Amino acid sequence: MSKNNIDLILMEPIGTIHPNIYGHFVEHLGGVVYDGIWVGEDSPIPNIRGFRKELVEKLRAIRPPVIRWPGGCFAETYDWRDGIGPREERPTTVNWWYNNDGLYESNAVGTHEFVDFCRLVGAEPYFALNATTTTVLEGRNWVEYCNMPKGSTTLAKLREKNGSAEPFGVKYWGLGNENWGGGGAMTPEDYCNVYRKYGIICKSVFPDGYYIACGANDAIPDWTLKFFERYQQMYTEGRIPPMSGYSLHYYVSNFGDLGEETRYTDEQWYETLRRAWGIEPFIVRQIEMLNAAWPGNDLGLIVDEWGLWELYYGKNALPGRHLFAQETTMRDALVAAISLNVFNNHCDRIHMANAAQLVNCIQSLFLSRGEKFVLTGTYHVFDMFKEHQNGQAVRSLVHTDAISYDFDGEDRAVDTVSCSASVKDGVLNVSLVNLSIDEDQEITLDLSGGEYAREGSLTLLSGVDDKDANTFDEPERVVPKTEKLSASGRTLTVTLPKASVGCVSIPVVQ
After folding, report:
1. Which of 3, 1, 24, 5 has the alpha carbon at shortest distance from 304?
2. DSSP E strands: which ranges in 349-476?
3. C-alpha distances in angstroms, 143 versus 3, 134, 146, 155?
4. Which residue, of 37, 84, 197, 243, has the greatest Cβ tally within 10 A?
5. What are 323-353's pLDDT values in tens digits?
6. Tens of pLDDT, residues 53-107
7. CA angle 468, 472, 476 (to 5 degrees)
């Protein structure tokens, strides 16, 4: 067993952890919507107004703050009018992902249904607006349809005719998605001009909206510098579109070099986790470029797509499997925990993050197939971390050894322990990850600026094996277990099993 020390400096707050950091993503892709969240009102599967009842209940339990919809790439050819009105009269259309799985879009879940889903689970809707294949006016009209008061305009009256007299109050609007790629293959300068038009016109009907611009992914980091050079030029010209947030995308993409979902080597395990941790230098570099181009800004960064995308990236759906659905092991759970720790530790700039995706796709919280339904390890990580929401993040200094490994003939290393910490209502919450695949870790938490008081708890998520996963046949193979702990003074020591996630929750006196 290795020993590690973490200094928790209570008098050095980082900022408040916005609940939106624990957001989610629902795209009309594979089985995310149909057979995922939606089964229909007439389904024998228990449902609430067509939404899978068990999923609604389990998602509500982890306090989801915000859910992004309807894409992703799907948004870039989406006509919002296809998803309103009587369901039997809605058009069947070609889904963005048709060439991957041959599925058509029924438009059974549209604006009204998705807002209803968000209300059922207690989340705010975040709409990705089509800024690629529709007009600025149609984008603005969707904002009007959602948010204008009852009876005020023709579109507000249409919303009432379709069953919702009161406005939806959709606050979050992404003006475009991945416009450097499937969203039009634009240059950053071209997209900045597009954003300007959509931002100015949408603001005219909804000035209080939280408008989010399409930003970079890890393959094109310099997009940010060029985009904001152009955006700043607009300031000098007196043409200022509103912007509350700036979107980043980061995937740990597995093109085959990281093994398969449940079959990978120790070296591939460590390389996956090293790449997951790579989101931190990506975020830091984005902040540096943004500050250089726009000194003194306080713009919120929105990581609205993140997760581990397994081997079948870019492939057709396998027989009996939804497109991009993947079995999730402890490897995926650790990717989630490391990512959330990074977001917590940069909560002064990260204002929202949305895991991709909610169900049956990439790094899902849930898997479903007809009547079958299971919670993944990623779900349990979100459940364990939920107490960080609205907590005051405090600085943690991790003293740990690095794990060295060989990957494709190169010497590489990754830290053994990941950590984030916050204080809320006098309770210290510390999230820990043991990246070692074969060794338990003893971790001493040294407080500075306070003392431990009374009893607390330690919740652990681990498997017998690092490749353990919850499946339809074994839905509780990996579940968290909680044990009591107590401490006084300034030192607390806990043990994390190999390849595990742990959360300490204990009152402190400052």
Report:
1. 24
2. 350-355, 366-369, 372-375, 392-399, 402-407, 410-415, 417-424, 427-434, 441-448, 451-452, 455-461
3. 54, 14, 5, 10
4. 37
5. 999 999 999 999 999 999 999 999 999 999 9
6. 999 999 999 999 999 999 999 999 999 999 999 999 999 999 999 998 899 999 9
7. 50
Residue 5: the pLDDT is 96
User: Which member of 305, 310, 327, 387 is catalytic?
Assistant: 305
Residue 179 one-letter amino acid: N
H or E stretch at 306: strand 300-309
Phi, psi of 230 (to 5 degrees): -70, -40
| Count helices and strands in the chain by DSSP H and E runs | 11, 26
Residue pointed to by tokens 């277990």 = 481
Euclidean distance between the first and the last CA atom of the chain, given in angstroms as a whole number: 32
Q: Which residue of the set 178, 261, 310, 327 is catalytic?
A: 178
Token digits of residue 446:
């040294």
Q: Provide the whole-model pTM.
A: 0.97
* Interatomic CA distance for residues 78 and 29, integer angstroms: 13
Domain boundaries, the chain: 2-8+394-509, 18-389
How many other CB atoms sit within 10 Å of the CB of residue 183?
Answer: 24
State yes or no: is 178 an active-site residue: yes
Check residue 384 and give its pLDDT: 98
Residue at 286: amino acid letter: Q
Q: Which parts of 162-278 fold into alpha helices (H)?
A: 188-205, 223-237, 266-277
Q: In what helix (H) or strand (E) does residue 142 lie, and over which residues does it extend? A: helix 136-147
Handedness of CA 341, 346, 348, 351 (dihedral sign): negative
> Domain 18-389 belongs to what topology?
TIM Barrel (3.20.20)
Residues 508 and 510: their CA atoms lie apart, in Å, by 6
Single-letter residue type at 318: L
Which CATH class for the 2-8+394-509 domain? mainly beta
